[in-house]
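Re: the 926-residue chain
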Amino acid sequence: MRARRGAAIAVIAGGGAITTMLVGLVTNAVSAQSHWPSWLGWLQAHPWLSFVILGVVTAGLTALLTALDDHRAPEHSPEPVVRPDDGSGPPGAALVLRSLPRDTTAFTDRSAELESLVHSVRAAQENGEALLVHVIDGMPGVGKTTFAVHAGHVLSGRFPDGQLFVNLNGYTTGRSPVQATEALASLLAATGVPTQQIPVGDDVGAITQARAAMWRSRLAGKKALLILDNAASYRQLEPLLPGGSDCLVLVTSRKRLAVHEEVVLPVEALPPDHALDLFIRLSGRAADSLDRDILDDLVRLCGYLPLGVSLLAARLRHHPSWSVEDLHERLVAAQDRLGELRAGERAIAATFDLSYRDLSPEGQRFFQCLGFYPGTELDAYVGAALGSVSVVVARQLLDGLYDAHLIEEHQGSRHRLHDLLRDYARGLADEGDSMDHVQAAQRVGTYHLAALAVANEHIVRGGAIVPPPPDGAENVETPGMESRTAALAWLENERPNILACIRQANELALHSLVIRLAAAMAPFLRQAGPWDQAVGLHRTAAEAARHTGDQQALAGALAELGVIRRFMASYLEATEALNEAVRQYDTVGDRRGKADALNQVGIVWYLTADNDASARAQTEALALYRELGYRLGQANALADLGMVRRQTSRFDEAIEAQSEALSIYRELGDRQGEANSLRDLGIVHCLMGEYGLAIRRQREAFDIYKVLDDRLHQAYALNELGVVQRITGDLEGARDAHTQALEHCTELGDRFGRANSIRHLGVLDRLSGDLPTAIRVLEEALDTYRDLGGRGGEAASLSELGVARGIAGQEAGAVEAFRQSLEILRDLGDRCGEAEVLNHSGVLLRTSGGPTAGRGRFEQALVLAREIRCPLEEARALEGIGRCHWTIDGPARAEGMLHEALTIYRRLGVNASADDVERLLVSQTG
């Protein structure tokens, strides 16, 4: 329909141009005031001929416009165009059902096709052969999806590891076909992969490959059934195919897909006798009470298509007073009204038209409104917004459409339109006022904003800014969400529908609605991801804000974009977005927004080792928060400033900042913030040699994380606890802690936490004498840190690799690792880490025949350790100097240094090192 209107516009424009030219020629011919060039001069010389041509053009234009007039009925579906997945435009999401849709009573005998499919699957399983992809193709309305779902229910017992159903929207009006990368993200999430573990990035091709590899790995060795419904092309579905041989894939499509090694199951229109049987069964009439000749003509008129037959039978069932002759008469009249359509289109459209006209006026209006909805499925709340009715009335109207076979029902009282019926509803809707579409989008957007406001109350930390409910929200009915779990479940179910509505609003240039919906979805996407989806959303919001000149909204969208980019370790893009957000907030005078953006960019600078810039940003944010009296912001800025002070080995300042943050978090009842500050305090206490206090703080933090069911931060606390246990000699406890942390991080997909875990385990492998494993594990951690841009972790891994390589006799590799580590640590300003590496390097030199050079390293480490009050590295440096003295000058000169080291080791409780020094001293006295 839109194509026709576009063609009409093109014809009008072209015709107008020709008409204007001809009028000009005639005018100029009469006036002779100017002369037209080339062949136009000939027309100018013959003005009456120009009048004739002008008349012919006008008549032809009128006839052509008449032919292009719109019709109410659906037109032939064009070939779907898969939008480029280049990150432009609002993001999409696939609807994935974790179980099969309900089997339908409208399924009729397709025994030959079903037997062929079942036999193919059974034979492959019994012979240990790979299951081939089965492609079910056929014309619209022929029952492809119904057949696939029915076959899935028949075969489900053979696939105990799960059944999944995915609508790929290949031919869905108003929806772009689902991108493979979007479908993979939804499939992985549906099978239990945490969204943080799903690969993200800007290279769509690489991300699609990575997600496809994870998907294949996820299904390896499993027996699962996957229905890929409504596929547009092989390119769309190929990345979704499992790699194993034990999974069955059923694909439905309107076109024949070139799938390698596929089994094609064409589904055609029903045989006449099967169509008759289906009609009689669904009509509720006795077969002998119906005129067979008229029945034959009825099923013929609807093309023997199951969808049309079902609708006709429903009409007869709902009108007990009608005879089959009455139904036939109405159907013929409907086909006459649609006479300009092609025969195949007219057959199915007539059944739609008959069912539609049988609805009440309220039902007809409601059905038209469904044509405006871009989502995949809807419930009564969305229906109420679309139809501008109450939820109770919406339920009644949806039930009426379901009874009339004009809508399908899914689990959880959710409904969806068949694509052909969506086309029909869209055609009806397009006949109305063009503003109806805009108003429907605004009503649904208002509902989503109101529902998101309710959900955000459960998932946003207290005091954080969230978009307020829309005007009139008190009149909008929203589903009950009594807990965080219920809110997250609602958000996950509605994600694809809300994103589709945002895309629609963007296409309709409803920029303000796009901005508000994106902001309302931001808290959920921050937590749930996938983050590339969030990036697309916030980019769209930023562009909408630029369209409207709304600097406040632009600042908010950029700030959210920067946060997500930080999560993705895209630190350059994060810094650019957040710095621009700071400038925009400053321009509009929003001090709270500016402080939030400064806090976030300060975190990015901390992660990229620009400690001075990070400290400045956090100090400025803290000052703004104090001016505003915003306590949570003060706590956040203090906590982040404390981390910067720790990283630069300013331990007293770190404790002061974190302790103040901890006090505020406790005052506010913010358990998450409290646990984070306790954990960081534990790290500082460990660096200061206060191991008992460090263990207590980490266990307190862990207990809070456990209450919050925050397994990721449980893992971080466990890793820090394991470090203290290792230093104090509890190697078994340390291994248990790091192993448990590794399990959490691997399951949750946190690569940074996983790298921390395996690095700490690598140190334990080295201490236990398993040098090959230690080196392999530490190199794996190093690769991850470099990939993520985690320079502190990179330096720590290099330091430990230097130790392991030195013990293994790889002296050159050890020296190079220490050199690279020192370079990074000095750039970071991490003097405690620098002292540790100098001590490690000193040990390597001392044991490899260079005690004098080794003593120089230890002396440098001693100066640093005493400056920053790091007693463990002080003791190690004293021990190193003493051992070098022992080798160079003899035991007498070494005793003072060794006794000093022994005293510190005993005070710290580092008994293994103390025992080593004591044995050396005893050997002299003995």
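DSSP finds 40 helices and eight strands in the chain.
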